[in-house]
């Protein structure tokens, strides 16, 4: 008694039923897909240096030291019109974001 003699009604997809407009098509927006070019090290020593660099970066991020080089690269790629902060201002901004201070005094214990 699954169907009980009642015809099944299929859902209609309205997107497929609309015809495309006649005439030539125009591209209204074109966003290129950025494919990152990853250059892998070619020598054993280059691999060791890359791993050491990434381990050091991971430990810095674990203790809260932000990476100024990544920030500058991000600003160049995504915000080319905006000049990046100086390294001193960048670190001050990161510390203020992590440990908000009141009137020049440390508001919270950083422990």
Structure description:
By secondary structure, this protein is mainly α. The protein is 42% helix and 4% strand. The chain has helices at residues 14-17, 44-63, 68-78, 87-98; strands at residues 101-102, 105-106. Strands 1-2 form a two-stranded antiparallel sheet. A hairpin with a 2-residue loop joins strand 1 (101-102) and strand 2 (105-106).
Contiguous runs where pLDDT drops below 50 for at least 5 residues:
none
Structural class of the helices, strands and pairings? mainly alpha
Q: How many angstroms separate the termini?
A: 69 Å
Largest sheet, in brief, is:
2 strands, antiparallel
Strand order of the largest sheet: 1-2
Overall residue-averaged pLDDT value: 75
Please provide the count of β strands. Answer: 2
Strand content: under 5%
The run of helices and strands is HHHHEE
Total of helices: 4
Share of helix, binned: 40-55%
The geometry reads as: extended
- Assembly context of the chains: single chain
Task: Give the C-alpha Rg.
Answer: 28 Å
Features of this protein?
2 strands; mainly alpha; 111 residues
